Winged helix-turn-helix transcriptional regulator (Verticiella sediminum), 148 residues
Amino acid sequence: MASDTAGPPSVTGCTAFRLRKLSRRVSQHYDGHLAAAGLRSTQFSLLSVLMGDVPPTLTQLADTLEMDRTTLTRNLKPLATAGWVRTSVGDDGRSRTVHITEEGRARWRAGRPLWREAQRSLHTALGLPQVERLHQALDDALAHLPAH
């Protein structure tokens, strides 16, 4: 990866590359734990968002996840095929609402203790002070970058 920078000399390398590399490694960590429930971290995250009382529209869900609707639809397809989610026509007749099914709730419940263990072991590996700094840095970055 090229190390051209537009910032101070102490910043080298591509920020996007480093974030993607970290994201892949963290996803692999969670995926390894969630595999026992037949879930990937992306699927568990989607099911977690859908565990609320009010089913969101596709647009609301995409906005919550900061994901375009096309990508969201592609990510929902295997969950629908597995019977974990379903969509229905929204109240206005034009939108689509996403519902978690009882099978999806059961899958989420099976994954929850595995996710907790993944979270615990990641925090142990990094150390809580590092996790706190990482969360703060991520929250700060999100606050400074506009959503598109």
In short: Residues 40-116 form a domain with the Arc Repressor Mutant, subunit A fold (CATH 1.10.10.10). The mean pLDDT is 92. Strands lie at 85-89, 96-100.
